[in-house]
Amino acid sequence: MTYEILCGVHSVLEAIKAGRRSFSGIYIAKERTLSRLNEILDLAGKNRTGVEFVPMDFLDKMSSGVKHQGIIAKATPFPVSKAGTDPKERKAGIDFKATKARIDLENTARNSKNKFIVVLESIEDPHNLGAIIRTALCAGVDQIVIPKDRAVQPSPAVSRASAGAMEHADILIVTNTASYLRSIKKNGMWVAGLDAQGETPLFSADLSGNIAIVVGGEHQGIRPLVKKECDFLISLPLAHGITSLNASVACGIALYEVVRQRARIS
Fold it and tell me: What is the pTM (predicted TM-score) of this model?
């Protein structure tokens, strides 16, 4: 069985609380003050997960230089949903049957209100992805969609950057983002792309219904083929000659505009 190394109090704690991974063991530095770890120790006991107290240098070697705060867990990889949407791959005989998460979306989007999705385009920085995931969960996003290629994937580094929030997220990996957007639009979703040149100001856009917010990568933004599938492009007001915002900051502003509009009409 494959295991990942989770480092730090928040990543380990939230992974145990989420209950989506299996653990082969938790390792705590003998020098570590245990007062902040009581919840982890309690949950580990309930889940019958072994806890071992080890020297600090043992954790230093195990973490390969990553800051670990005196605690490390060996856990199975973070579970993601996967859906392939590339017709060429299907024709070639590769089975990309839709996952339960996607089937649920397609079956309910027409009849449900306020479905909320974030689609990420080529985010490469684990810190940006972690920040977006944490903000998305706080804003009530139902699902986060990430392309399989040319983008950072859920990992221990992303979990750490999200302060463990990733452990609770519903993340879908897609093969072809443009095809995925076409499929959700057929099932009642509106797609809004965040773009500095967008003609619709964020605070003038109607984001109150079933909405997917597309966020571009750090370097090239939203790719042309994906941008073509957006129903409209929204821009954020920028002053003092600044031409763009960090991807996670821009995403956070847009997500909370969705929250504001929904609170206004509820």
Answer: 0.87
